[in-house]
Backbone:
């Protein structure tokens, strides 16, 4: 049996028509001996009726059907009796009076409910083990659709801008100095390995040298990192690179892409151009390089108030070159001891000694530190932080970057507490895009006593800062940019170095990578650059993360058809697994199982 | 400097305009002190003029430019003097009188010429080592464009047919019974491995169980096979699956896709529906399951002529159940001894004892075997094979499949010899599509004394043959289909088994796979099928191969940006490589280098 219509198609305009439908038995109800089956396909649901008074044999056959069985039904479209019309679905005015039935497959009883609410309560491991059932839930079906639509919109956009998609290899060379990578032993070359590509960065720059000019790729990437909630062993990256462009071009191209995606997937117009915020401002105001701008609670620098304070902790921090940052969590004076303790623990995990606070409640300041403050200091704080009754103020006293980071995190936690209390609303679809720009090109790695590239060593310095590459590398800003949405880094990129001599200098003189390592790892790129490399730059962003934001979910596993667990396991197909001795022998390796 | 136009844009309609162009110095010519540079970007070429009489300083600067350097030029569009107009390119009527020059990067001298003809003569290893230069050649640039266009057309087509693209994992579980796979050691699970996905076959069937109904994916796949001319370690597969469909639906969907691709990429209308040919006919007529139908030279069965022959080799073959196949290579009687010997060697490599032939030359048959033929046999041969003077006839006497295969290969070789002699034309753009259908579901593996699936164990039997699954498996035809173009298998697929009991029976009773292996390898699929699996089927085809055919090249390496060599090496970036002891320790493996 084949379908004449899909299950969201039949409306009262089809009354009297002979139709056939195929799909899954979504729900089955018996009303006084008459069997009603909601038949579901990927488009929707249509109610089918089996009446034993009309056809006893057919109704008996239909009685064997269990939920989630696959069936085909042909019959006549009839109006539902008054009072049984379902106005929530397009097919709610009709039902199909069954004349024939084909049972393709009977289903066992699913191990968990397949509706959105029931399924969401289920342990995720169970959902992943039975992913084929989990993916039947309306929410998950929608997520796969959104991902398809978003991906299509991205490809259509870049095609319209004359970018061409070029595939680059997954089997690449090992670069042990970088992030941890997956290795693939070679059978032909005993003792040698490929590494799974962590990103097409080097290949895309090579494509610019090849004269492709406008490249993009939606590429699978692999990183053997410790998996967190929003990480997967393999992830999908939208990777873009173009020649003869500057930062303004990248902003325009990427904003245009996001505009199209948001329009086509959500029918939302996002305003462009995006706000641009230097890294220093992002840290100062939000304590993080990916600020969530859906709410305020901005950080304040109150260092100048405490320059000569009697509160030695603050005074000495300022004297030592540090800063005092503060945040007024408006209306959060009702925080419990437990909540304050939890926040303090987070601050400590970020390197704070504690988390000083002022609770402004019933006309007085409750605080372990306020007794050290002068009246002038109190007045200045009240003025600068606009402290009112009911407010909760937090302080961090430390070096600039650490103080910002501590209060940046405090800000996010405070916002969550306000949301919990109904005092603040943060909507997932309140889209606050921005560019964070002017990152430092290098940061100093205390442990190894050398500079490291903040993003990667191919980023070009800002032109006017290049003169400080030797004398004061920390002062040099990079032509790097991050696209940020609602506290998440959507993507990042940079204008690259295209002159081989400068690239070599950055590798060897600034980053102090030994010349032989530079040669073995990047020698081929430096060589390529001597054959006419154009100025170029680009951006890369995580498709999984973007789809999660579009779907309003916090987990990228909800937008990946077959994700692995946080321990890297495929619970459905069961991997990884031991392999045979023959396989290992062919690959010239053996396993070394650590002793307990 | 940024461009105002691209290098294929300026025509006499722009005379007098001030423009700027960026790109590569394609060629540099000095005519009486005046420097002419062909500036090239991805779109085309524009001639730029530096006249020292107009601006000596600028001309001196331009004189430093070497071919393949990257430059920006601004200037005025002027008409070329009469007699110097190049009518072969759209910009051939104008040139740009340079006013300013920016040199972005000077190029070293490329190690090989970057034109199509010069580059084609270069050793391929050199091209792969300097792939960024090889990809600048017009032919390779076009190939990347064609690949992008074809891929885009495929995605647009499936989207228009309401298929959604779903990504499936590359890191899958090892299934050592199948083709050789790449293994990836797990760091978290000591002693365990992932395998790189050889195809999304199992995931796409699971997606059908999940109710996706219409899935496609352009997926990277990995096989550790011995690399031949048309194989790569990683390749790109267009993978399609749909529910509630039959073979006719698949033919229609896939033909529609190819129609769109050929139209959009080549502006060629290919006629549909395609010819359909049962496997048995393909073997009988062309000696192969992927017939090249651009030329005739069909195989003939001449067994009946030799039933009672005095030529015992033929007679006993027929008596023993074998066949005598023959092919008349019209006009090839001028084959040399060397050519005949080479063809005989090929036949022997396919299991033939020799390659019997008749050379019909100057009114007589020259042949080592014809002396054994009766006049009646000669007359019957002449009649059936339409032997004329100048023809060359080959015979194979063997079991049906072997005889077909030997002459199928002979047919291809003979065609090449006729092409070489100018007696036959085979155009790469003479598109002869067909479906080969009705393959046997199983074939008997003599070595292991059991049946094996001809394609894969998920293929459903043809309904009317299913009754012979137990009694006579060889008689059962599968619902498999191959799409063939000009002697190449473009793709293949099947309608799958969707009933868990039948699938289990095929695994265990027909293919005799031990129950524990079935459980560990396919247990999750059999389980999934008990929860409402719809009837489904699909197709998969190699994108690299299709692009090679579209580009008229015989090597898939010409349509892959960064292919590996036949020894699996990346000659540009240099991989595979040894890795550090630390890396191996983290992955709980060590290498075992075989002794010389």
Residues:
């Amino acid at each position: 049996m084949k379908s004449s219509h899909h299950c969201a198609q039949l409306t009262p305009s089809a009354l009297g028509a002979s139709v056939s439908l195929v799909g899954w038995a979504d729900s089955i109800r018996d009303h006084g001996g008459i069997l009603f089956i909601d038949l579901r396909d990927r488009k929707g649901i249509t109610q089918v009726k089996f009446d034993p008074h009309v056809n006893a044999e057919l109704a008996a056959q239909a009685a064997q059907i269990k939920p989630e069985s696959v069936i085909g039904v042909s019959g006549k479209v009839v109006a539902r009796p008054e009072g049984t019309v379902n106005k929530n679905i397009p097919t709610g005015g009709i039902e199909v009076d069954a004349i024939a039935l084909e049972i393709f497959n009977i289903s066992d009883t699913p191990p968990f409910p397949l509706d959105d609410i029931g399924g969401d309560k289920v342990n995720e491991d169970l959902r992943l083990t039975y992913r084929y059932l989990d993916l039947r839930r309306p929410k998950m079906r929608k997520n796969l659709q959104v991902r398809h639509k978003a991906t299509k919109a991205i490809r259509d956009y870049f095609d319209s801008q004359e970018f061409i998609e070029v595939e680059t290899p997954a089997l690449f060379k090992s670069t042990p100095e970088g992030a941890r990578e997956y290795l693939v032993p070679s059978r032909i070359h005993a003792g040698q390995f490929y590494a799974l590509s962590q990103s097409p960065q080097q290949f895309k720059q090579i494509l610019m040298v090849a004269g492709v000019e406008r490249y993009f790729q939606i590429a699978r990437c692999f990183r053997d990192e410790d998996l967190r909630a929003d990480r997967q062993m393999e992830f999908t990256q939208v990777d873009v690179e173009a020649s003869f462009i500057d930062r303004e071009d990248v902003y325009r191209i990427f904003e245009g892409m996001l505009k199209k995606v948001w329009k086509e997937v959500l029918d939302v117009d996002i305003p462009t151009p995006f706000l641009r915020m230097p890294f220093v401002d992002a840290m100062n105001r939000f304590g993080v390089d990916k600020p969530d701008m859906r709410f305020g609670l901005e950080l304040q620098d109150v260092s100048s108030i405490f320059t000569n304070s009697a509160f030695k902790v603050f005074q000495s921090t300022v004297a030592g070159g540090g800063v005092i940052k503060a945040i007024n969590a408006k209306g959060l004076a009702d925080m419990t001891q437990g909540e304050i303790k939890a926040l303090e623990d987070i601050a400590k995990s970020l390197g704070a000694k504690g988390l000083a606070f002022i609770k402004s409640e019933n006309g007085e300041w409750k605080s372990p530190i306020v007794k050290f403050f002068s009246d002038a200091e109190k007045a200045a704080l009240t003025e600068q932080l606009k402290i009112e009754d009911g407010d909760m103020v937090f302080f961090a006293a430390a070096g600039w970057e650490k103080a910002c980071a501590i209060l940046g995190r405090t800000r996010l936690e405070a916002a969550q507490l306000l949301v919990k209390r109904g005092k603040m609303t943060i909507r997932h679809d309140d889209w606050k895009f921005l560019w964070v720009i002017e990152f430092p090109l290098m940061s100093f790695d205390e442990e190894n006593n050398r500079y490291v590239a903040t993003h990667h060593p191919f980023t070009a310095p800002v032109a006017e800062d290049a003169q400080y590459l030797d004398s004061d590398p920390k002062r040099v800003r990079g032509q790097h940019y991050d696209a940020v949405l609602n506290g998440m880094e959507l993507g990042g990129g940079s204008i690259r170095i295209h002159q081989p001599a400068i690239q070599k200098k950055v590798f060897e003189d600034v980053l102090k990578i030994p010349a032989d390592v530079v040669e073995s790892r990047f020698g081929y790129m430096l060589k390529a650059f001597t054959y006419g490399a154009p100025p170029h730059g680009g951006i890369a962003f995580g498709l999984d993360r973007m789809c999660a934001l579009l779907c309003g979910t916090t987990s990228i596993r909800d937008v990946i058809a077959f994700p692995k667990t946080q321990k890297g396991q495929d619970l459905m197909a069961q991997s990884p697994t031991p392999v045979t001795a023959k396989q290992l022998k062919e690959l010239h390796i053996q396993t070394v199982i650590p002793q307990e």
